[in-house]
Amino acid sequence: MFAPTALSLSLLLSVASATLISGATRCQSFGASLNMSDVKVLHTTYYTGNETIPLDDLLCNRPGATVGVQTALCRIALLVDTSATSQVQLEAWLPDEWSERVAVVGNGGLNGCIDYSNLAYLSSFNFAVIGSNNGHNGSSGDAFLNAPETIIDFTYRSVHVSSELTKSLSAAYYNTSHKKSYYFGCSTGGRQGFSSIQRYPEDFDGVVAGAPALDFNHLAGWDGILSVMNGAPSGKPIISSELWEAVRLDALRQCDAIDGVKDGIIDNPDRCHYTPEKLLCTGTGGNTTVCLTTKQAEIVNFVFSPLYGLKGELVFPRYDPGTSFAGLAMMVFGGQLFPFTLDWWRNTVYNDTTWTGEGFNLQNIADADRIDPGGVSTINPDISAYQKRGGKVVHYHGMQDSLIPSGNSRRYHASVLRTLGPKKLNTFYRYFPVPGMDHCGGGPGPNVFGQGGLSAEGVPKDAQNNIVLATVKWVEEGVAPEQLIATKWKDDIAGNLQSRRTICAWPKTSVKRGSVYVCV
Question: How confident is the model at residue 494 (pLDDT cuts 50, 70, 90)?
Fold first, then answer.
């Protein structure tokens, strides 16, 4: 099994000094010289920068997929044995011009897809960066069936191995040790970031975690319950996409102006107590076109209410009013069982390929709680060890997230606050709710603040506009980010500015004063 603590010395002894060779020769020599127990070099390629490379022969990418490489770098693909029955595939991107920073990027959903977009993005900032397949290939959870070690790779081990490996590889390649280590991820990647903070507080000096899939069993269970409420797995949704859009617009009519600005955004969903009664079908002379039956209205009310468990305990927060029911949300509301729910219970909770999810209910969630496969729940609020070692975490979540309700982040942040107290919390943790942003990006509000990949295109590369650089500034200069500027491009096409808005670290909120937004 891969032993990360022994890796750095073996590499330094086996690889020629990085100062004696350069460019393509240095890269190829490095890849050919690696001799590590339980690690296999798959391929080594050098890029001169400002080029587009094909990815259609690699993990999880559609035919014809590409990624742009902005800076000259050495790309090394590796296969690491993590146990007798599990492996993680990784790619390390080592730029010629190195900032003496290392980074790890996370994953999404249940997937085993290397995040090439963010490998390219962070290497453009001269990070030595690693991404992994999270212990399996493909976007489904089929690889988890009767594979407990693969589940452990998915839940936390792949990121820990990546952390150790990027430090050792960079030390050998550049012939000097890194100065700071970082992690960047959103959704499942956000959960992975908090899992590292909870399990391995020494791994990263700075963590950027977006829309984290915390309390994962309950999140996937909540999705399953909502799916069944709307007709899953029949394939015939009880509430159509047209009706869901009517519900969204009705919520905006009721709550958009609460903040004093009518802009298609409900700034604080907690202040919106939406009721769908005005959409009820009322017969002759009333609402008879796009309208809700009594049963449909009950479903809407259920969706906008917290979910409670068999013993009356809170299972999961409600869907945020004003959020879109299109796009990603149709995985929940499209008439089929949410695919992550089906995969997770079939392949990890029950290990039963005949399980269909028919009638998914609170008992199924209780079963997952009892087992907690791989320790995936990731809800431990005591992250004092990370605070004591001087780590920093910047946490963000869109307030119109169509896949993971923003209330999940508010709930976790509040639990850490209760556990550590405000004085300790303020030394190392900043939470940024982002009004009008969907899942990790997109949505009707300003939603681009350098949080990764293509979403950073066109945004100024400074700590005021870019969350990566804001985190680096906090870790390395001690200047905590209290606000960021988010950009909205017209039609979400970079370069065509529509608006900008200040987003604020909790408990401050972004309020319009005249023509600008300020934190109050």
Answer: confident
Q: Of 228, 195, 486, 216, which is closest to residue 332 (Cα–Cα)?
A: 228
Closest CA to 185 of 85, 73, 109, 280: 109
- Look up 17 and say whether it is catalytic: no
Please report which confidence band the pLDDT of residue 286 belongs to, taking 50, 70 and 90 as the band edges: low
Residues 467-476 have pLDDT tens digits of 999 999 999 9
- Distance separating the N- and C-terminal Cα atoms of the chain: 52
Q: What is the widest separation between alpha-carbon atoms in the chain? A: 85
pLDDT digits (tens, 9 = 90+) for 159-207: 999 999 999 999 999 999 999 999 999 999 999 999 999 999 999 999 9
User: What is the 3-state secondary structure of 82-132?
Assistant: EECCEEEEEEEEEECCCCCEEEEECCCCCCECCCHHHHHHHHCCCEEEEEE
Is residue 262 a contact partner of residue 400, using CB atoms and an 8 Å limit? Answer: no
Q: Which of 205, 343, 401, 438 is catalytic?
A: 401
Residue 162 CB partners (closer than 8 Å, separation 6+): 88, 90, 104, 130, 131, 132
43 a catalytic residue? no
Which is the catalytic residue, given 187, 195, 377, 455? Answer: 187
Is there a catalytic annotation at residue 227?
no
**Residue 46 phi/psi, 5° resolution?**
-110, 140
The structural domains of the chain, ordered by start, are 4-215+376-519 (3.40.50.1820), 218-371 (no CATH)
3-state secondary structure of 54: strand
| Residue 378: other Cβ atoms inside 10 A | 25
Q: Which two tokens stand for residue 165?
A: 């490996």
- Burial profile 381-401: b = 16 or more Cβ within 10 angstroms, e = fewer: bebeebbeeebbbbbbbbbbb
- Computed over its alpha carbons, how large is the radius of gyration of the chain? 23
Cα(279)–Cα(291) distance, integer angstroms: 5
Whether residue 264 contacts residue 297, with contact meaning beta carbons closer than 8 Å, is answered with no
Residue 10 has pLDDT above 90, yes or no: no
Q: Answer whether 150's CB lies under 8 Å from 353's CB.
A: no
Return the structure tokens found at 205.
Answer: 């000096």
Sort strands 127-132 and 86-95 into parallel, antiparallel or unpaired.
antiparallel
- Give the tens place of pLDDT for each residue, 420-463: 999 999 999 999 999 999 999 999 999 999 998 766 777 889 99
The pTM assigned to this predicted structure is 0.94
Which residues is 497 bridged to in the sheet?
489
